[in-house]
Amino acid sequence: MRYQNLSIQTQREAPNNARSQGFSFLVRAGYMTRDAENLPLGDQAIQRLQSLAAESGGTFFSKLSLATVGNDRETFFPLSTGPIVLLHCPACGYTDRKEWAERKKSPFPPEELSSLEKVLTPGCDTIEELSNFLEIPTEKTAKALMFTRLSDGKFIMAIVRGDMQISEAKLEAHTGKIRAATEAEIIASGATPGFASPIGLQNALIAIDNLIQDSPNLVAGANDKGYHLKNVNHGRDYQAEIKTDLAQAQAGDPCARCGKPMAESNALLMATRNVYEFSNILLALAESNYGEKGLSLPPNIAPFNVYLMHVPGKTIDTKLSAEELYSTLQNAGISVLFDDRDERAGVKFNDADLIGLPFRITVGERGLQNNQVEIKARNAADNLLVSLGAVVDHIRNAIENYPL
Ligand SMILES: [Zn+2]
């Protein structure tokens, strides 16, 4: 492919919205715009990745040498500026999106169910105020959250223990899309804002976190302003239609698998099952493969293996020789990006470093006088002089033995 056919525009400066070095180099090297839209060079890189994915099936990410994390549904690449928030367990490797992550839950020791008791709780608008006033831990309270289903306006009350938060994503997986209920909707259902309880609601769908079933004698609202009920028990006092994990896990919560504390981190989505997010994968590869002057992509993932350029000469037509070498390499099945512009050598060297193909071949007057060209591996410090007839074999060997 010729440089000019790909309409490559490189940039000297990092884009001012660059949040990571890999993204910055992809924009500067002309793979994508600063709005992360792919440019022709980026499309070419993604086509290369698509064929590699088709060839390698389940071993795709290990072929890319990307350190991914994930579960049987999704694969992620850890990146501090990534848009997805993960919880992961450093001890056992458990990983999921924060809104889906499961935490270990510890039920209370069994106790006799006590009788409902209505108590005056003045000024107790929050779980903390309630637990201070009644001198009980927050885990002995029930937190009621109220929503309206978008599809049919159904009123939904979800109950989690007072020491936990709700994951709306987990709730929506059972109810469909929801929004916060309005005060009028709460009152119409028979509940009292701020003192809401699942007991005695009209036409409400009740959902409880599964830990509520193992948490006897909780304090909940009394659906009466200023009052709470002691000893509220699911099964005896109200029935939920949905009983499932609704708890939003937090960093530091115990891992559902091994009980060790989980940590929060950011990531990019690489794949959902076997559907790959190729633009994100290209970004992850850039984050994992760059040097001081630009990208540095290994042969199996680079959009082309060779950056071929000529330095205009005084007595020899270097461009003509470069054209011949371009055909020779292509006929040998080696993919080439041919910088056929009549630019200064320095401009082309900079672009070659930014774009980061594994090998640069420079056709110049001095080399041609000895029938030689210069070959430089992107990750090597020095150039090699190689005679024109040996270039194909040299590149083939170098691709095979490229240090990963
Ligand atoms: Zn774990």
Summarize the structure.
The protein has helices spanning 21-28, 40-56, 60-63, 127-134, 168-175, 183-188, 278-288, 318-331, 345-355, 365-369, 391-400, and strands at 69-70, 74-78, 84-88, 95-97, 117-120, 142-149, 155-161, 165-166, 178-180, 204-209, 218-221, 227-232, 242-244, 247-248, 263-272, 275-276, 306-310, 336-339, 359-363, 372-377, 384-387.
Overview of the molecule:
The chain is elongated, with a radius of gyration of 31 Å. The protein has 404 residues and is of the alpha+beta class. The strands form five sheets. Strands 1, 2, 3, 4, 15 and 16 form a six-stranded antiparallel β-sheet that branches. α1 (21-28) crosses α7 (278-288). It has eleven helices and 21 strands. It has helices at residues 21-28, 40-56, 60-63, 127-134, 168-175, 183-188, 278-288, 318-331, 345-355, 365-369, 391-400; strands at 69-70, 74-78, 84-88, 95-97, 117-120, 142-149, 155-161, 165-166, 178-180, 204-209, 218-221, 227-232, 242-244, 247-248, 263-272, 275-276, 306-310, 336-339, 359-363, 372-377, 384-387. A hairpin with a 3-residue loop joins β1 (69-70) and β2 (74-78). The mean pLDDT is 95. The structure holds zinc ion (ZN). Residues 89, 91-92, 94, 255, 257-258, 260 line the site of zinc ion.
